[in-house]
Amino acid sequence: MTKNNVIMIIGAGIGGLALALALQKRGRKVAVYERAPELGEVGAGVMLTPNSNRVLEHLGVLAEVEKGATSPGQTQVRHFETGAEMSTTDLGDAFKKRYGSPYYDVHRVHMHAALHQAVRANDSGCIHVAHDLIDLSQDAHGVRAMFANGAVAEGSLLVGCDGVRSVVKGNIGIDDAARFTGNLAWRGLLPIEALPPHQRGPAITIWTGPGRHFVEYTIKNGTMKNYVAIANHDTWTEEGWSTRAKVADPLHAFTGWHEDVRAIIAATPADGCIKWGLFDRDPLDWWSKGRVTLLGDAAHPMLPFMAQGAAMALEDAVILGRCLDIDTSVDDALARYERARLERTGWCQLQSREAGKLFQRIASRGELDGDRAERGRRLYAYDAVTVDI
Ligand SMILES: Cc1cc2nc3c(=O)[nH]c(=O)nc-3n(C[C@H](O)[C@H](O)[C@H](O)COP(=O)(O)OP(=O)(O)OC[C@H]3O[C@@H](n4cnc5c(N)ncnc54)[C@H](O)[C@@H]3O)c2cc1C
Question: CA 20 to 30 Å from 327, out of 107, 144, 184, 280?
Fold first, then answer.
């Protein structure tokens, strides 16, 4: 195989683009290959906790992301029927001071655009859309990637940032069966004016009840309400984000819930509701082979209950960049990367499972407050830029 120093990145999601930027920042040449015919993200919100924002700042895109961000000020947990406040966490100035970085709610499309614009500003020709990876091979000198459009590319390292159903993961011999969790989720997005004034505030609200929970927050400078509604369901076969749903379905599933929850669902535009089944996988023991490794959801897909999937991908990106700087051999760098990331991301996968269970029963204030405190200690304080690796 030809020797060259290009690092091939498969997938231009949040993880792939963050890695491209992290590597470019270190003076490396990258080529990003994306299956979709054009770059894009789903129309939904994403919560950016301090550990994410620290990475975005390091990558030089936080200022752009902040232009469309909402500062939620606090998270409230509420009773599904009475609306009674069960736990409140401050996310304001004291929180920012404690963790050295803010908490934001943003639109995915805006964050994704900030990342790909920055990558293209560094190298206008490095992102190749309509490149669907179908196979790869490697030897001691490099990796060869084969795409459905007939293109072939070579590089010194290949990083699979190709999401939950990663082709790269399968290729290096990892077969992690996904289990349906018994939960179905609906996601909706609506203009804030569609809601009464008392429901237009920036706070994140988690409504918790038996077998169901509902998370709502605002994005796009507070002009849009984003929600995720999760309920037990018997069967589901599709793992994906894009199945359109009737607004009547979540409205039916949340019968008997507080009128504020039902008002949000009812105000969703007819074409603004998506549903998907939630699948779960166990943490991996390893995710690198030779000159190939994984990053983000490809390596450690997690349930969305702690809002950390994108955060873990962002952290991975910076850590992998740092490992490649420290070690001259690819083997050593990938071993260091795994050592630095396996425990944290595995913990996060398992903890996300537990968080889902916590929100689908009536937990005590002590349990809810304890969960929040643990997240602060283990998640938000982590600094991918400076942590020992
Ligand atoms: C309801 C919900 C809410 C969430 N909320 C949050 C949150 O608030 N905060 C947070 O941090 N995380 C959140 N997450 C998780 C987060 O969205 C994901 O973890 C994150 O987007 C993963 O990024 P990724 O780049 O690893 O994968 P993806 O975003 O899946 O990107 C993979 C990319 O690879 C491409 N691709 C796939 N196969 C190929 C191939 N063969 N060849 C070429 N390209 C390919 C895809 O087209 C895609 O562009 C949430 C997830 C869900 C489901």
Answer: 144
